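HUMAN:
Sorry, I am quite new to this. Are you able to go through these amino acid letters and fold codes? The numbers rather puzzle me.
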Amino acid sequence: MKFHQIFAIIRHEWSLNLKNGIFWNGVVVPLIFILLSLYHFKDDILNLSENGLLHVIYQILPLFTFYFCVFYTSVLANEVVNDKSSRISEIMLSIVDAKTQIVGKFLGVLTLLFAHITVYFVIISYVSGILGFNIIKVLVLGQQQYILLLIISMILTLISCLIWTVEIGVFVNDKEQTFLAIMPSLFLTGQATLLSWYLVLNSGGEVDLITHILFDIPACAPAIGSVIITTLVSNYNFTYFEAYLTETVQLVFLWLMLKRAIKNYRVGSISNNQRHVLFRNWFK
């Protein structure tokens, strides 16, 4: 891999999306909804204790992870499918190898995500401070270790979704089938988010060893595990050691998935095969 090529792809990702009105619509509309919700429920929030406010935040955070994953996998899916349908991917493959392209695209999306989160962080902190409470301050000052786990989990979830999106999207020859590229990510993260909400709403404190094992096993699965593990740590007696152990296992899976995605990206970029794209790269 050549780093100047990776940086060029990252700049292309930024330029392509910052000039896209749909991208800005996906950034601004949720932010407006969040700010209006803060204003509407400000009296209820002011009456909450710090622990009560944290409990509310823990319910919302899985939804943020789901939103960011769906939003950025959609961004990448549209780009990959557009490149494939216009045959740009074939030209790019003759100039830049598949590994460099994928790493550059992923880093471009991840840096966009960090900028996105930072903007939300600053604006929500400022507005909530004006309204008489600072949600970000309550979360950050008392939960630094949890914030670190949350960021790592969000990154792992997004990377797993991006890998599936690229691996499937590169076999899509029709823009009308773009949804197929994000469907696995949408389904898995959606199921994990629903499970996280259920766990938060039915949190019962400490759990026994068998329950730990039953949850630790699926927590090792890419996308699903990194979403639910943050809820298990915040609402049950799961330790940070368990969380980082499961995410280490996820890294191993992600590495294997990435190697396969690079191979499929190389093949799919020049393929015109019309077989069902959801199963082409899993059942050969």
